[in-house]
Amino acid sequence: MAPEITPTDATLGAVVSNVRLNALDDAAFAAILEAWHAHAVLIFPGQYLSEEEQVAFSRRFGPLERSLTKTHTKHDPAIIHLSNVKKDGSLWEAKSDTGRLLQGNNYWHTDSSYKRIPAKASLLVAKVVPKSGGETAFADMRAAYDALDPAMRAWLADKIAVHSYAYSQGKVGGTGAITRDEWDALPPVEQPVIRTHPATGRRNLYIGRHASHIVGEDPDESRKLLEGLCTAACQAPRIHVHKWDVGDLVIWDNRCVLHRGLGHPLDQPRRMVRTTVAGDSDEANEWVA
Ligand code: OGA
Ligand code: MN
Question: Fewest beta carbons less than 10 Å away: which of 8, 117, 211, 246?
């Protein structure tokens, strides 16, 4: 059984069918990896993976990041529960720490860009979906790089941005959702504004909400420039929006894709489970689970 790959109408994303992610032989995994490198976002409808199966599939892409304290289960630090549902079944309010933490996800970002070694991939599985809204949007930073004005592309070539979770999350609040020790372990870090993808050799923009300003440039001016770049980058035909059904799994490449939640009515439950594949690095990664 070979996976069937159907690209979306956008410059990124493909739907993969004819495959069972909990029973995947090496040939099928190789086909998936190749498709992932080509399309950057893969959508697997109706997989209904358990948390254990999601972790096992995720680990095929590399070691997993451990999550921040308050979002992981007691059982597996590699699992993140993105949920507005409390233990007692009632819903977190928008103004609670959890509500604000989730709200942060609704701005274009790439996961863990505020960590010294940023994430390679994220995998999200839908457990409970709201009646309306709750989609996730993905934006292709390879095509965004290709679409840059040549002068801007040349100017950005050697630029370094400071990425900071205190900066990005500070804008929406909810900073109490992670512990003091975790804040101390997340000082601002520097990331190149242009990355080259190790598997494809394609260049792409590496920006998003955690990018605060550009090193060596005026902080306010470069912040405005980064925001403008992000707005221009995240436009059709570089956007694919996924409308979730329960059981779907989506994997995206954090090295070359921005994503954001589109939000949903907060009186409706939404429960998602995420795993995060750590970035490849020769250095020790303190965030590996
Ligand atoms: C994430 C994320 C957005 C969403 O899981 O990293 O940003 O729609 N999710 O839940
Ligand atoms: Mn995210």
Answer: 246
What distance in Å separates the CA atoms of residue 216 and residue 82, rounded to the nearest whole number? 36
Mutation choice for ligand 1 from 136, 252, 273, CB with most ligand atoms inside 8 A:
136
The helix or strand, by DSSP H or E, that contains position 167, with its residue range, turns out to be helix 165-172
Q: What is the DSSP letter of 85?
A: B
How much distance in Å is there from the Cα of 124 to the middle of ligand 1?
7
230 vs 273: CA distance, rounded Å: 27
- Please name which of 137, 175, 173 lies closest in space to residue 263, comparing C-alpha atoms: 137
Name the DSSP letter for residue 54: H
| Angle (CA) 79 14 1, round 5° | 85
Beta bridge partners of 92: none
Nearest-angstrom CA–CA distance, 172 and 101: 8
Residue 96 Ramachandran class (φ > 0 left, ψ -120 to 50 alpha, else beta): beta
State the distance from the centre of ligand 2 to the C-alpha of 5, rounded, in angstroms: 24
Which pTM was predicted?
0.97
CA 111 to chain centre: 4
The answer for residues whose C-beta is within 8 angstroms of residue 138's C-beta and 6 or more apart is 12, 13, 40, 41, 239, 240, 241, 242, 252, 257, 258, 259
Question: Is residue 73 over pLDDT 60?
Answer: no
CA distance 136 to 243: 7
User: Is residue 112 within 8 Å of 255, Cβ to Cβ?
Assistant: no
Q: Is residue 74 very low, low, confident or very high in pLDDT (cuts 50, 70, 90)?
A: low
Which residues neighbour 182 within 8 Å (Cβ) at sequence distance 6 or greater? 68, 69
Tokens matching residue 218: 């005026």
Average pLDDT over residues 65-83: 78
Averaged confidence pLDDT in the chain = 95
